[in-house]
Amino acid sequence: MIDARDYAVTEALKNGMDICIRASCPEDTDRVVEAFHMLDKESIYLRFFGNKKEISEAELQRFRDVDFDRRVVLLGTIQKDGREIVIASCSYTRVDETVAEVAFLVEED
């Protein structure tokens, strides 16, 4: 079985841009907040089941507390102007041995 905490793969998209799908880390918090601010209102509503302008501190702490056993978060990132930019995220949280809650979010552009 793959250890998700070490997961990283880079692939070329159809438009030629490279995307890296990799495990999140606590140092990604600022990148995740920046990515949230780039989303349109409809994407925020669909992902969070309501309107919101900011990610709460509790949500950021939950992001930082990923254990890669019960809870896994992967990020999709691109390089732009020498910076790593988050354009997608996916996560799952195990409810029990056979059930997990999953979530996906992809920046519209």
Briefly, what is this?
This protein has 109 residues and is an alpha+beta fold.
Structure description:
The protein is an alpha+beta fold. Helices cover 24% and strands 37% of the residues. The protein contains three helices and five strands. It has a five-stranded antiparallel β-sheet with strand order 1-2-3-4-5, with helices on one face. Strand 1 and strand 2 (18-23) form a beta hairpin. It is globular, with a radius of gyration of 14 Å. The chain starts with 7 loop residues before the first strand and ends with a strand.
Distance linking N and C termini: 33 Å
Structural class based on helices, strands and sheet pairing: alpha+beta
Strand order of the largest sheet: 1-2-3-4-5
Compressed to H and E, one letter per element, the order equals: EEHHHEEE
Number of strands: 5
Rg of Cα set: 14 Å
Quaternary state of this entry equals: single chain
